[in-house]
TrEMBL record:
Name under which the protein is recorded: ATP synthase subunit a
Regions annotated as coiled coil: none
Its job: Key component of the proton channel; it plays a direct role in the translocation of protons across the membrane.
PANTHER family documented for this protein: ATP SYNTHASE SUBUNIT A, CHLOROPLASTIC
Similarity remark: Belongs to the ATPase A chain family.
NCBIfam families reported for this sequence: ATP_synt_6_or_A
Membrane topology: Multi-pass membrane protein
The encoding gene: atpB
Domain of life: Bacteria
Protein localization: Cell membrane; Membrane
Swiss-Prot/TrEMBL keywords: ATP synthesis, Cell membrane, CF(0), Hydrogen ion transport, Ion transport, Membrane, Transmembrane, Transmembrane helix, Transport
Entry's transmembrane regions: 12-36, 74-97, 131-151, 187-208, 214-239
Length: 247
């Protein structure tokens, strides 16, 4: 069982692996967009083709939810969300960084008691395999959707809670509260389960688990791509429900 380094700040505990993974993911997304958007020309080729394919792919998602002109307003948001979740899903599957420690490190929460169970420390994992990250993203998207709808038309925003009947208000309220919870849980559960199984197979007998592990890694990459797509689609669905001219 690998140990996880943690630090305490202002009475709160932070997972160092999540912090490292999140920063690395943000840097990778920034580099991808920066490098693939350099040297633009009217006849795209090479890296520009890749970036334009990503843009058109995400534009297809936004245009499904909103009319084209309004969809363009949310295109950059959708692209950023998709790329961040995609890269975050891949990190813990493709890259695993561990080290051995033979002495307590109190500042990282590594105690002598913890060292009795394992001397191996994990320094890297998919940020989206941590429920705190997916919950934070899902609730941020939910708040953004609600405020967008509220600022667009306060009257219609509040009116929809009582449609088609006033008695529907409690159900609408439950629905709005459940959306970010299911949005977060779906992504977290899939990525977390994939990484756990990889760790289990890695600890097994090599000649029995090597092939299943590599097959599962390939499947996890596929799942990571699908989950990035689903997360982005649901984000745009929730936003469109608040800002579209007709619900």
């Amino acid at each position: 069982m690998e140990l996880t380094p943690k630090i305490k700040f202002l009475g709160m505990t932070f997972d160092v692996t999540v912090m490292i993974g999140t920063v690395v993911t943000a840097i990778i997304v920034l580099l991808i967009v920066f490098l693939l958007s350099r040297g633009r020309s009217m006849k795209p080729r090479g890296a520009q083709n890749v970036m334009e394919y990503v843009i058109e792919f995400i534009r297809g998602i936004t245009n499904m939810m909103l009319e084209a002109k309004k969809a363009e307003k949310y295109l950059s948001f959708a692209i950023t969300t998709f790329l961040f979740v995609l890269i975050a899903n891949m990190l813990g599957v493709i890259v695993m960084v561990n080290s051995e420690v033979h002495g307590a490190i109190p500042s990282l929460g590594i105690t002598e008691k913890a060292l009795k169970t394992s001397h191996e420390i994990s320094w890297f994992k998919s940020p989206t395999s941590d429920i705190n990250v997916t919950v934070a993203m899902a609730f941020a998207i939910a708040l953004y959707a609600h405020f967008s709808g509220l600022f667009k038309s306060p009257k219609r925003y509040f009116a929809h809670y009582f449609q088609p009947y006033a008695l529907m208000f409690p159900l609408h309220l439950i629905d709005e509260c459940a959306k970010p919870v299911t949005h977060a849980a779906r992504l977290w559960a899939n990525i977390f389960a994939g990484e756990v199984l990889i760790l289990i197979l890695r600890e097994g007998i090599p000649y029995l688990t090597a092939v299943p592990m590599f097959l599962w890694i390939g499947f996890s990459v596929f799942v990571g791509c699908i989950q990035a797509y689903i997360f982005t689609v649901l984000a745009m669905v929730y936003i469109s429900q608040k800002v579209a001219d007709e619900h």
